[in-house]
Amino acid sequence: MLRLIPLPCPTEQSFPVDHLYFEVVYGPLLGPAAVLVARNLDRRLATAKGPVMFEAVALALEIGLRSNNLDPLGRRSHLRRAIDRLAHHRLVHWMGPTDLGLARSVSIVSADALRQLPPAAVLAHQRLVGLEGA
Q1: Rounded distance between C-alpha atoms, residue 27 and residue 83, angstroms
Q2: Which of 3, 37, 39, 121 has its CA 20 to 30 A from that of 83?
Q3: Does residue 118 lie in a domain region?
């Protein structure tokens, strides 16, 4: 069992993980599995209205990731890789061996990250942040 804990919102200008911005702009950076993991975890926190316990195997199966019942968070597991991508972008943080913190909102992507995005994601970023013509 893992314990999921909400983390504080990263900045004033942010979007919840269930917002279109997260899917369209962060999606190309994170990959589809990480987006599904973040949204599933966010729903769990919203339903529980605070920290909540969950099974890693159940999470993997709910979003369609193959899972090894013996080690669902093994180094090479799809779930672990998705969580690692979320951690790389500071959307999750391991707070202990079984405690995982989740940022329920994401800040707008940096200029460096924006340069890595496909044109459609850049356009979506500009529209959603209100930067048309930027």
Answers
A1: 14
A2: 121
A3: yes
Residue 95 CB contacts under 8 Å (≥ 6 apart), including other chains = 5, 101
> Which residue reads 């500071």 in tokens?
90
Q: Is residue 38 a part of any domain in this protein? A: yes
DSSP for residue 66: -
Please state the pTM of the whole predicted model. Answer: 0.89
The residue-averaged pLDDT of 8-27 equals 90
Q: Which residues pair with 105 in a beta bridge?
A: 16
* Measured CA distances, 18 to 28, 69, 76, 97, 110 (Å): 16, 28, 27, 27, 20
- Domain range for 83 is 2-129
Torsion over CA: 95, 92, 85, 3 (sign): positive
Residue in this structure with the two tokens 């599904």, named with its chain if needed: 36
